[in-house]
Amino acid sequence: MKGALNIFYFGLAAAIAFVAAVEEEELTEMQKKVLGLSLQEYHKKEHVINAFKVSSIQSITETVFSQGTFVHLQLLLEQTSCRKHQWQKKDCKILRRARRLNCVTCYKIEEESLEVVSSYMDCIPEQLLQTDREEGRREKCNEVKQTRETGLGLPGIFSFSRSRH
C-alpha cells in the first residue's frame, strides 16, 4: 500500500511539473526576445561546440520597472547534432546521449530602444545544480533587476528628491 501511495505522489508531482512548463507559443514578444538573446549568447561561448535546443521552459517572469523590463527565464537545453553556428536550424536532432543543461538567464531591457541594460546567464549540467548555486543565481538576477533603479522606483520620486536640494 505504501509503495502504491509513493508512486501516486511521484506521478502527481511529475504531472504538476509538466503543467508548470511554459510553451514557446505562450511567450510575450519581450520574452521571445530574451529567449533568442539567451540562446545567441550561449552559442557564442568558446567551450560550446554543438548547438543546443530548448527542451523545456521551466519558468518565465516579466516585470516592468521605471528603467526597463526585467525578464527572468529558467530553461533546460539539450545538445544537438548541429554545430554551434547552426543553432537556429529547426531540423537539428538531439543527440542520443545529449548533455542536458539547466540554465537561468535574466535580462533587463530598456522599453523604448530595446537595448539590453544588464544581463546574466548561467548554464550548468542538470545533475550539478545545488542549493548554493541556486542562491547565487537569485542574487545575480536581483542585481540585474535593480540596474538603474533608484529609490523606490515610484513616479515623481526623482523630481521630489531634486526639489529638496
From TrEMBL:
Residues 1-21 form the signal peptide. GO terms for biological process: cell differentiation; chemotaxis; inflammatory response; innate immune response; positive regulation of chemotaxis; regulation of lipid catabolic process. This is Retinoic acid receptor responder protein 2. InterPro entries: Chemerin (IPR029562), Cystatin_sf (IPR046350). It comes from Microcaecilia unicolor. One of its GO terms (cellular component) is extracellular matrix. Keywords: Chemotaxis, Differentiation, Disulfide bond, Inflammatory response, Secreted, Signal. The keyword Zinc-finger does not apply. The gene is LOC115465520. It comes from the Eukaryota. It is found in: Secreted. GO terms for molecular function: signaling receptor binding.
